[in-house]
Inverse folding.
C-alpha cells in the first residue's frame, strides 16, 4: 500500500463532516497536484485494502459497495461510528 495515498485519504476525510466522501481524483490531486493523473491508479488498490480492513467504506451512488466487485464511479468515506 502507498503510505502517501493512505495519508491523503485520511487527511481529506478528516476535514469533512461525518458521512461525507471524497473521490479518487481528489485524493490523487492531494498527493501530486501537477501529476495527479499518474497517482490516480494508485488510489483504488489502497482504498480496496483499507476497505477490506474495515478502515474505509467504498461507495457507489451513496451506498456501500463490495470492495471486491465495484465498478464505475466510486467514492470513499469513513465507516459509520455506530457500526
Amino acid at each position: 500500500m502507498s503510505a502517501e495515498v493512505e495519508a491523503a485519504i485520511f487527511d481529506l476525510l478528516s476535514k469533512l463532516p461525518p458521512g461525507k466522501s471524497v473521490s479518487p481524483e481528489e485524493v490523487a490531486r492531494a498527493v501530486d497536484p501537477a501529476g495527479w493523473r499518474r497517482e490516480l491508479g494508485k488510489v483504488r488498490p489502497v482504498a480496496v485494502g483499507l476497505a477490506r480492513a474495515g478502515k474505509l467504506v467504498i461507495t457507489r451512488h451513496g451506498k456501500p459497495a463490495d470492495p471486491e466487485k465495484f465498478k464505475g464511479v466510486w467514492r470513499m468515506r469513513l465507516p459509520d461510528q455506530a457500526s
